[in-house]
Amino acid sequence: MTAESVSRYPFDRAEALQPPEEWAQLQARCPVAHVQLPSGDTAGLMTRYDDVRLLLTDPRFSRGGEGAARVSTTADGGIFARRRASAMSIAGEGHRRWRRLLSPSFTIRKIEAWRPRVQRMADELVDGMLAGSSPANLSRELGLPLPVRVICALVGAPSEDQDKFAYWSQVMLTLTRYEQAEVERAYEEFGAYVSKLVEDKRAAPGDDMLSELTQISDSQDGRLSHEELIATVQALLLAGHETTSNMIAIMVAMLLAEPERYAAVVEDPDLIAGTVEEVLRLDSTLSVIGMPRVATEEVDFDGVAVSAGTTLIPCRPAANRDPRKFPDPDRFDARRDNAGQHLAFGAGPHFCLGQPLARMELQVVLGTLVRRLPGLGLRDAPGDLRLRTGLLSGGLQDVWVTW
Fold first, then answer.
1. Residue pLDDT, tens place only, 161-180
2. Strand order in the sheet with 136-137
3. Which of 9, 191, 276, 373 is the most buried (most CB within 10 A)?
4. Distance CA 8, CA 106 (A)
5. Strand pairing class (33-36; 217-218)
6. Alpha-carbon gap, residue 147 to 155, rounded angstroms
7. What is the required cofactor set for this protein (predicted)?
C-alpha cells in the first residue's frame, strides 16, 4: 500500500444526501487508501467498482479472521469481528450449504407471492398517516413499521415485539454508540428470543417462512441446525428491520429532494422498478463501513501491492458511483441500462439472499405513495436532513413529509 497520510473513516460530508468528496478523489488517483476506523485500527479503503467487486467475489479475500482490523469502538470490535455463530460468520463449505438450503425459500416467485399482503400492509399504514395531520414523520409512520410487519409475518414473530427488534439491532450494529456490556446483553436477549421462536415453530409449524425452514431437509445437506436457524432468523430480523426501514426513508428523501424525480414516477408508474434500482445505486448513507475483507495472499491493485493479512474495506456506495462503470454516475436516471448492476446488495457468494424481498417492499412503497400522494413533498430543505450516526447501518434521521 502507498504511504499517503491516514484519514479518519467514515469521511465527513457537506450534506446528508451527498457523498463525501473523498470518494471521487480516491477513485481517480488512489486504488487503495489508508484509513483509520473508529476502533483506531487502520485498513485499506477500496472505492473503484472493479476492485470492490473483486473483494466481494474473489476467494483470496476472506471475511475477517485472526488479526483483522476491528471496526467498532467496543472491545469485541463490532459485529463483523465476533466469533459467535451468525449468518455473517458462516464461511466456506458451511456457507455454501447454508445458501443451498435457504435459497428455495427466497426465490423471486416465492417473494412475489407476498406482494399482495405487503400491499395491504402499506395501504393500512398510509391510511393511518393520512388520518393524522400534515406534516408527518414518514420514517415513523411507514418506513419503520412496514418492514417490521413484513418480517414478523415471514418468521411468525409477534409484530408487537418491534421495539425489542429495534433496540437489539441498533446495539448489535453499534459503531460508537454503545458499550460492550450493552452489546453482550443484546446478543444474549436476542439469541434467547430467537431460540425460543425456532423451538416453537419446530414443535407447531405455522404458515410462515420460519416454519418452512425448520422442516427443510435434503439428502445432500441434511437439515438446518438449531444454531443455523437462529443465525438465519437474526439476520432476517436485522436486515428486515434496520436496512429496509432506513432505505424506505432514504428513497423518499432522495426522490423528493429533487421533486422532478418523484413527479416522473407519478406521471409514469412503469418507472417504479428502475427508480428503485437507481435509488439503491445512488444511496451513499446506509452502508457506513462495508464488511471488511482480509487478503490471504499478496494482491496487486493497479500497481499498488496489498500484502497478505491486510484488512480492506469494500466501499460499495463509492463503487456504485464509479464513472468507469456508470457513465455520468451522479446523474439520477430511472432508465439507466445498467443500474441493476450496482453493488448495494453485494456480489458473489455473499450476495444478499433477501434482496428480492427488499426490492419488492421498496417497489410497493413507492407505488403506493405515487398513487395515493402525488403531491408529496419534504417538510425540510434537503440540506437540513441529518444522518443517523454511531451505527454501522446509517441512513437518515426522521424524514418529515407534507401533502
1. 888 888 998 999 999 999 99
2. 136-137, 400-402, 377-378
3. 276
4. 38
5. unpaired
6. 12
7. heme
Within 58-161, where are the H helices?
A: 92-102, 108-112, 115-131, 138, 145-155
Residues 6+ apart with CB under 8 A from 391: 170, 173, 174, 175, 177, 288
What residue has cell string 407471492?
113
Give the H/E segment covering residue 172: helix 162-172
**How many other CB atoms are there within 10 angstroms of residue 192's CB atom?**
11
Cα 40 to Cα 26: distance, rounded to the nearest angstrom: 21
Residue 35 scores a pLDDT above 90: yes
What is the distance of C-alpha 347 from the center of its chain?
13
Residue type, 198: V
Strand 311-314 versus strand 42-46 pairing type: parallel
pLDDT exceeds 60 at position 326:
yes
Inter-residue contact 331 to 84 (CB < 8 Å): no
Q: 17 near 385, Cβ under 8 Å?
A: yes
Q: Which residue, 393, 143, 170, is CA-closest to 287? A: 393
How many beta carbons lie within 10 A of that of residue 92, not counting itself?
Answer: 11
Kindly indicate whether the domain formed by 7-402 is annotated with CATH number 1.20.1440.230: no
Compute the chain's Rg from CA coordinates: 21
pTM recorded for the entire structure: 0.93
Q: How far is it, in rounded angstroms, from Cα 247 to Cα 352?
A: 15
Domains of the chain by residue range: 7-402
275 Cβ contact list (under 8 Å, min separation 6): 255, 261, 264, 265, 334, 366
CB-based contact 31:45 (threshold 8 Å):
no
Tell me what pLDDT residue 2 has: 44
Which triple of cell numbers denotes residue 324?
A: 468507469
Note if the bond before 10 is cis, omega within 30 degrees.
Answer: yes
Beta strands 299-301; 217-218: pairing state: unpaired
SS3 letters across 234-269: HHHHHHHHHHHHHHHHHHHHHHHHCHHHHHHHHHCH
pLDDT tens digits, 194-233: 999 999 998 899 888 888 888 875 445 567 788 888 888 8
CA 376 to each of CA 129, 261, 327: distance values in angstroms, whole numbers, following the listed order: 12, 12, 30
**Residue 135, preceding peptide bond in cis (omega within 30° of 0):** yes
